[in-house]
Amino acid sequence: MDESHEQLRYPIGRFQAPEKYYPEMQNEWIAAIEALPKWLDLCIENLDAEQLETPYRPGGWTVTQVIHHIADSHMNAYIRLKLALTEESPVIKPYDEKLWAELPDVNIEPVNVSITLLHALHRRWGQVLRNMQPSDWERTYYHPEHERYVPLWEMADLYAWHGRHHMEQVRQLRQRMNW
Fold it and tell me: What is the pLDDT of residues 27-73, one digit of tens each?
């Protein structure tokens, strides 16, 4: 992958999990998760149907697909969080995000439906995260695709990154296209 393609695909860099848990990072992760829906509001503001169907990079998803993907992904993350808080290291169910992005609802439903969903979801997600006990952050779920246990602190960091990552793809597309 050449450098410019890598920059378009991962505008804030690839996710790198910290080696260990730093509790002082919790507020930053939670703030990013809570802020994402407002950031996305700004990113798609005043985009028309043609702009929403523009891929953020050659061969990449359209803006519409990116927005619906975030909703799909973050709903799964929220459920995984709740499972990990209520069960002992549950095995989670992976899903094929590429196939999900091709399902009819992605092309039929306007992006505002997923943005509205994200506002509600992220509000609840933030409340769960803000009210976790210190020991809860070490709870895990097992990800069979990655063949490892994922602690909730790493998951919070990952999804704080994930939201910024996709938001920045859309923001940079707008900037490049001068929209």
Answer: 999 999 999 999 999 999 999 999 999 999 999 999 999 999 999 99
Q: Is residue 114 part of a domain?
A: yes
Q: Which helix (H) or strand (E) holds 146?
A: none
Distance CA 8, CA 6 (A): 6
Provide the number of structural domains found in the chain.
1
Going from the C-alpha of 166 to that of each of 122, 151, 159, the distances in angstroms are: 15, 23, 11
User: Is the Cβ–Cβ distance between 153 and 30 less than 8 Å?
Assistant: no
pTM: 0.96
The full 3-state SS of 45-81, as one line of letters, equals CCCCHHHHCCECCCCCCEHHHHHHHHHHHHHHHHHHH
Query: What range does the domain containing 55 cover?
Result: 31-177
Instruction: Give the CATH number of the domain where residue 166 resides.
Output: 1.20.120.450
Express each pLDDT in 103-130 by its tens digit: 999 999 999 999 999 999 999 999 999 9
Query: What's the rounded Cα separation, in Å, for the pair 123 and 125?
Result: 6
